[in-house]
Amino acid sequence: MTDRSAPAPAPALGPASTSQPLPEPVVGPPVPGPPVPGQLTFQAPRRGKPPRHLADLAPAERTEAVQALGHKGFRAKQLSTHYFERLVESPAEMTDLPKTIRDDLVRDLLPPLLTPVVQRLADDGRTIKSVWRLHDGAIVESVLMRYPHRVTICVSSQAGCGMNCPFCATGQAGLTRNMSAGEIVEQVVSAARLLRRGELAGEGSSDEAASPLRVSNVVFMGMGEALANYKAAIGAIRRLTDPAPDGLGMSARGIVMSTVGLVPGIDKLATEGIPVTLALSLHAPDDELRNELVPINTRWSVDEALDAAYRYYEVTGRRVSIEYALIKDINDQAWRAELLGRKLTSRGRGWVHVNPIPLNPTPGSKWTASRPGVEQQFVERLRAAGIPTTIRDTRGQDIDGACGQLAASTA
Ligand code: SF4
Fold first, then answer.
1. Is the pLDDT of residue 7 over 70?
2. What pTM, to 2 d.p., does this model score?
């Protein structure tokens, strides 16, 4: 990706512009060192909580929060309209709120959560990767991508990750902390504002394609294992899908929850009544290899993860995606494609789709992407078994592929 040379104009709400002096980095509590191979971290290190934000709260909680500040409850709806529906960037735009009330509400319920560190462009400006600093100095990323007829943002749900997949840069650095629902949602709102400003290049040349669109898809494939931060992740999903002005009014069908296979989290997600798409990062069909590639497999095996994915399909009716990063001479053998095909078809037909992804290698890693011919054979064996299979687009160095893949180039 190339460094972004023309930063966005300064908004007064939400992220500050990179054209203004950035605040001094906030040094948070010491972060534990990198995990040892195979170590899993479920408990996020204790750090100062991010400031409370409107997007952390359900609509009824917003009303209570506004009343607790001494204002009329209906102000909560006005504030939600400004944040979720109008995407306002400056409190001055909230002209229906008297100034003293506005100042009060903005200070308490719309604190800045993300400070831009750097933006990089790829794919002729159709992909923008944003690196953000959180209130305590933790760093996360999000990536915005324009495709024909859709705009997708890949969001982070944790600073770092405790799942320790050895091929993933994020996992190697360990878990810094869980993000709040507000911090997750703010990545999407910031992207929506950026789109409205026309800063994401258009796809194709037609006016329709080049005009700003809404963010249509959100994928939880940035930093972190979202199901290990369940409460905030489901809170964010509710804010994304609640109809405006209570939320962004997105379709659940446009949201992808990626997981390495936290079985209780998958089962819980199935009961929420929000049929998002589940993406299971499998990467190996056998326990021996998956124990190494995806250490959570020592807790929940391949079969247990696939059973949970199938249950998710049964409850929600949503076809599950299996993500499979193809790693040269490690997991790309013909017999593994056949084993994967058997494991999927033995559970039923039509419930699953496989997305092989050429590995985006971490600098210094011993692993690299499979050769294209091997990749194609892997795909064909799965298709021969009757499994719909599509090689993932490698936009912006494979940032739309699987969780953690985008973290390799954080700097
Ligand atoms: S691949 Fe995903 S789950 Fe595994 S360490 Fe990286 S971010 Fe975490």
1. no
2. 0.89
